[in-house]
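Student: Send me a single protein entry containing the residue sequence and its fold in token form, directly below this note:

Tutor:
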Amino acid sequence: MTVKEIIEKLDLQCLNEANLDTEVTGAYASDLLSDVMGNARSGQIWITMQTHKNVTAIASLRDLAAVVIVRGGVPDEDMLEHAKDEDVCILVSQDPTFQICGKLYELLK
């Protein structure tokens, strides 16, 4: 399933249109940046409440398919600018982490 298909099925807000055809291999949920840096795998969607520039740096470094910000979080301008520069897809969900994880699990299992 691609990032674009997940956006449509989960009614996510897409803040930039980077890598929408990327095949999603799974998901990783964490707000601890060092945890994501050490454990997230290429092709996964990262689920977080973090909204700062370091998120996009780690997403790019780990070659993640997209970042989903939960609970309607609003990324700061530095994050959006860096996401554009690094081709990192930023998505927003109104759901809390637990619910978006469950929905992604159902789609990707």
Q: What stands out?
A: The first strand starts at residue 13 and ends at 14.
